Structure formats: C-alpha cells, structure tokens
Amino acid sequence: LTAGIWESLLAKEIEDIETNLPDNIKLAYLPKLGRVKIRITGRNTTEKEVEKHQNLILKRVSEYVFSTQEKDSLEKVIGEILIQKQKTVTVAESCSGGNIAHKITSVAGCSAYYNGSIITYSNEQKMNKLAVSKQTLKNHGAVSEQTVEQMAQGVLKLIPSDYSIAVSGIAGPTGGTEEKPVGMVWIAVADKEKVVSKKFQFWPYRAENIELASIAALNMLRKFIQAV
Predict the structure, then answer these.
(1) Region 31-57: what's the mean pLDDT?
(2) From CA 77, how far away is CA 18, in angstroms rounded?
C-alpha cells in the first residue's frame, strides 16, 4: 500500500522490474484517492519466487510504502506508530473541514494518541485561536507556507501534543485565483522543535481535494515521525 505518489509515477518507478517479471507473475495497480495498492500475483510458481520480486519492488519504492497488509489504512498505521512511540497528535484544519480528525477517530483506540482538533476556517479564528499573525495573513494570505506553519505551531500550544498537522487550501470549486488556483493546499507537520511544510496542487473538485489533502497530511505526519 503506497501514498504520496500518483499511479503513473509509481509505474514508472518500477517499470524495469515489471518488464522483467516472468510470465507467470503479474502486477496490478489499484488506485484510490491519494493512495495506490500494488498487487503482485503468481501462478504455478513458489511463494519464495513471488517474494523475491515483491522485495525488489519494496526496496525501490520504500519511501511511499505505508503497509504491506491489504486491509490496513493510513490512519490505522499512523495510530500504531504513535502507540509504539507513546506519542500524541493534534490537528488544525481549514479547507479539510474536520476530515483528518474524522479519519483519525475512525480507528478504535485513537484516544491513546489523539488529543483533539480545531477547525479555523476564517482568518479571524486563525488569528484568535492559533496565534497566526495578522501581518502574515496580510502579506501571504491564508493559503501559504507561513500561515500553515504558524497554524501547526499554534495548535501545539492550544492542544498540547507531541506532533501536529495543519492544513489550509482552496478546496473549490470557487475561490481560486491565477496565483492560487483551486486545489492548491499547504500542509505542515510539526513537533516542539521543528516544522515542515509542503505545497500541493490537487484537482478542481471540492470533495476530492478534501480527501487528497487529508491523505497527504497523514502521510506527511507518518514520514515526519519516522524520520525522527
């Protein structure tokens, strides 16, 4: 199970491996919003032979793989990581409107690591609740690296936790500009010592953008935690 890479790019990454597969071993790409499942199937062969090719793929795309268990979800895997490390997380959402919190709380036992969230949709609430500066919003706007990083740092103070996620973007279908089109989303993850942010450009469709932003944010958190 992979996240953080589109199906076409994933296929390109392992194109040579797929080309050199024996005739009785096949790959299938099963995409879902923000995620791609790679399924490897062998017929009239041995488990050891299938595992050999599977391991080649895993090694090549390891940075995108969040699980090798078919029924796992990204939010379940993150929960397991947080429990193992005895860490907690909180979330500041804008354009995702609580969808990240919904995903986290869909996992049984999340109270062991999830401390809460806040949805600060307006600039006023970003300033009042998360201490995003008025000057930052004036100079850079709500959808910006500077704003989302201040949101991530602000929610750590509002709801003390080990890690935070912050998301701000233009879900659409209206509200975009030439400089900041519909589908542009800034995401930040932080702990008490550092913050990392990234800009994404998704689609012109609101529901899809909310889901894509949520998956991207959770995947950023996974990689952030594992890099510590």
Answers:
(1) 95
(2) 27
pTM of the model: 0.96
Residue 143, φ and ψ in degrees, nearest 5? -100, 85
Q: Is 228's pLDDT higher than 90?
A: no
Q: Which two tokens stand for residue 159?
A: 């709801």
DSSP secondary structure of 129-145:
HH---HHHHHHH-SSSH
Cα 14 from chain centroid? 22
Phi-psi region of 172 (alpha: psi -120 to 50; beta: other; left: phi over 0): left
Mean pLDDT of 71-95: 98
- Three-class DSSP category at 194: coil
Q: Average of pLDDT values for 86-93? A: 98
Q: Assign 56 to helix, strand or coil.
A: helix
Closest CA to 145 of 181, 175, 186, 189: 186
Alpha-carbon gap, residue 220 to 197, rounded angstroms: 9
Q: Which position has the token pair 């996974």?
A: 222
